[in-house]
Amino acid sequence: MVILHIISSNIDKEATQLMLKKCLFPVAGYGTRFLPATKSMPKEMMPVVDKPLIQYAVEEAMNAGVADMGFVTGRTKRAIEDHFDINYELEKEIAGSGKEQRLSSIRELMSACTFNYTRQHEMKGLGHAILTGRSLVGDNPFGVVLADDLCINPEGPGVLAQMAALFNQFRCTIVAVEEVPEDEIHKYGVIAGEAISDNIIRVTDMVEKPAKEDAPSNLAVIGRYILTPDIFDILEQTPPGKNGEVQITDAILTQAQQGCVLAYRFKGNRFDCGSVPGFIDATNYVYQNLFKG
Ligand code: G1P
Q1: Which residues are in the Nucleotidyl transferase domain (predicted)?
Q2: Which residue among 149, 196, 241, 286 has the highest number of C-beta atoms inside a 10 angstrom radius?
């Protein structure tokens, strides 16, 4: 009996460790495309209608079952920490005025999730940012959400939730991809691979921001990843790549060569809120389809 109990509790422990419970949000970048707006305000705090980009990102993770939110942050990003905390003065001021309901979405997040922060001291690329988040993640699989890419699926689960369901089935690193026009391919990590089904591709190649002539396909990685924790040891050994930065794309290619990485064509709309036109499109979409006034 005792042995059985030990075995079953080990299985339970393994199953829990394999579920997606943690998510990293790399938020140390400058947001130069939105200057002067982002001179002293984090780009992740730019509001799409009435909610900052980072809150959409954290809500997407919470809706995927994640409760442990880790931020790789930097100087000038304190507003993000304040956003996920109580503002006593404001709350006292608006108590009983009917305006408190405007804080209900953030309150819900704060009661359901924990928030941890670590600082990236130098900007050495997305791979370096993710490696900086190692202490927040430990030896667990984790999501990565880039708040610049706002993803909305009006018809069902969010993109990270779709990926988490796939992760429960395949237990390997998963990247979200979508087709992009040829003249935009140079802005993304681009994959090549073998189709397993309509929406799932086994990755065989991955290139960071290729020229359109060198792109292995038109399938671009967007800012949603589920990574297995072996990525950290790989990142430690990954030399700087494109633009002299440590690229997560290069580390994921190593994982693909050593084992299995899947690319997933997600359901829903993605807005590139790191660009002005994408940000405007997102604002119009949210205002017309989701905003309740
Ligand atoms: C990063 C990644 C790139 C990915 C993109 C998605 O690039 O390096 O592979 O396609 O995010 O948004 P960034 O946009 O940070 O330059």
Answers
A1: 28-286
A2: 149
